[in-house]
Amino acid sequence: MPRVNSFAPLVASVVPRMVGLLRQNAVRSMVLLSLMLFAPGLARSEDMPLDVLARRIEEFRRDHGNAPGFTDFFQMTSRPGGGSLVARKDRSAAWRLLQEAQQPEIKKADLLALFEATRDAILDLYMECSLEEREYPEDKSPIVQHSSSLFATDAGKVLLRTTGQLPGDKASTVRTRGYDGAVVRTCIAEGATTAGQVTAFESRAMFYEIETNVLFGAMLLDAPATIGSELRHADMKLFLSLPGATVFERQEVVRGTSCVVLSDAAAVIYLDPARNYAVVELAAFSFPDDAPPWIHGRHELSDFADCGNGIWLPRRMHRRRFKKPDRDPMLVGEDIAIVTDLRVNQGIPGTAFSDIIPRGTVVLDGVQNVTYVEGENGSIQSTLDSFSPLRRHTSGHSSFLRSPFFIMSNLIVFALTVFVLAWRFRISRSRASCLGSRSKGGP
After folding, report:
1. pTM of the predicted protein model
2. For residue 47, which of 8, 77, 92 has the smallest C-alpha distance?
3. Is the same domain home to 22 and 150?
4. Are residues 149 and 291 in the same domain?
5. What is the pLDDT along the chain (443 residues), one digit of tens a residue?
6. Which helix H or strand E contains 266, and what residues bound it?
7. Residue 145 and residue 176 in contact, taking contact as beta carbons nearer than 8 Å
8. What sign does the CA torsion over 104, 108, 111, 115 have?
9. Which of 183, 232, 328, 364 has its CA 20 to 30 A from that of 205?
10. Is 286 in the same domain as 326?
């Protein structure tokens, strides 16, 4: 009771003031009170039933002459404050309703056949490319790197050469790797130091760079066979095999070009009908339950080259990456690749895939387990000083360098070298003594 009585003066002074404020502006007070009581129910309306969605899709066709497009659908099913009107359990069924309503100018099966024919028409490919990479750390200056690359492929053989300067390096590093159908040869030149390596073939993934390779951007890669991965954003066949992949009837304009829209609800791909349905843009989205959708990656392709046989390949690829903190999505990095030389089905000499290591370069051959100098038969080098750039820029071969066989073979070579040098030194000493005795005794 004493504690309650201690609040009595405070209550007596506050309550009359509150009553006075309410009397001064009764209307505003009632509005605020109503919002406090009913706003939670008004802010989130009821989920949209599937039959209502189906009716809205039909009404859209009646009003516009075609089914809703990708953008139309998400505007139709989005809440004003963000999130989807369709319950999570009904979203797959809602996407099927949209998919079944489409009557596109090119069917999904025809588009698949077209991309397969285009990919099969590329017998060989040669390209040179310059790349600018930009990273945008928060509260820091942008980090910019420049590099260049050369890529070639023909009948399963493949070649990649990259030239660039890593942070902290004083000189540019040129890395060349070629697979000639038998082994993989690698040459790394850093300043005046050159090192070579021969290894067994494992995968073509090491030859394909997502930032610079036009087959990645054009989605003409046979991902499982080429890089051993189900990378759908690089393989149109894999993307179209998704049950949710939908070709939309309603086209959208991208950078002044009317494009056919293809989507699986997570990624949107824009195809140019005037260029044999070549990919001109790919956007990847995230769809939070309680916020509007936001883009976390965009890949724009432009400056297309007509390579014949219905093959259109981009000569400029601009890839941007975003992240979404508490505010709007922000750009965190971008790559701009410019193709300076592009040749398709013009033939590539077979020696381009095997003539990788220059004559006179020390080579670590992991296939034959020997060390030699390229172009010098029978020469063996036991020192590994020349392999410092190779050890720095390659991985997976340190176990071979530490293997007992490699260590013992180098010790044996070293012992034989010492023995031969000692034997030759002893013979030279004996010959010198014989000549000295003859000069003293005379004939």
Report:
1. 0.73
2. 77
3. no
4. yes
5. 344 444 344 334 444 444 444 344 443 333 332 333 333 333 345 789 999 999 999 999 999 999 999 889 988 988 877 778 898 899 899 999 999 999 999 999 999 999 999 999 999 999 999 999 999 988 888 999 999 999 999 999 999 999 997 666 677 899 999 999 999 999 999 888 899 999 999 989 999 998 899 999 999 999 998 888 888 889 999 999 999 999 999 999 999 999 999 999 889 999 999 999 999 999 988 766 666 667 889 999 999 999 999 999 999 999 999 987 666 778 899 999 999 999 999 999 989 999 999 999 999 999 999 999 998 764 444 444 444 444 444 444 444 445 555 556 655 655 565 454 455 445 444 444 443 443 334 33
6. none
7. no
8. positive
9. 364
10. yes
Bridge-based pairing state of the strands 157-164 and 143-154: antiparallel
Residues spanned by the domain of 14: 2-43
What the block records as the tokens of 19 is 């009553």
Rama region for 135: left / alpha / beta (φ>0; ψ in -120 to 50; rest): beta
C-alpha angle with apex 244: 239 to 249, nearest 5 degrees? Answer: 90
**Tally of structural domains, the chain:** 3
Tell the residue number behind the tokens 């009557």, with chain if given.
103
Residues 29, 120 share a domain: no
Based on the fold, state whether residues 151 and 22 are members of the same structural domain: no
Q: Which residues pair with 161 in a beta bridge?
A: 150, 176
Cα(53)–Cα(4) distance, integer angstroms:
58
Q: How far apart are CA 203 and CA 249, in angstroms?
A: 39
Measured between alpha carbons, how far is 57 from 369 in angstroms, rounded to an integer? 67
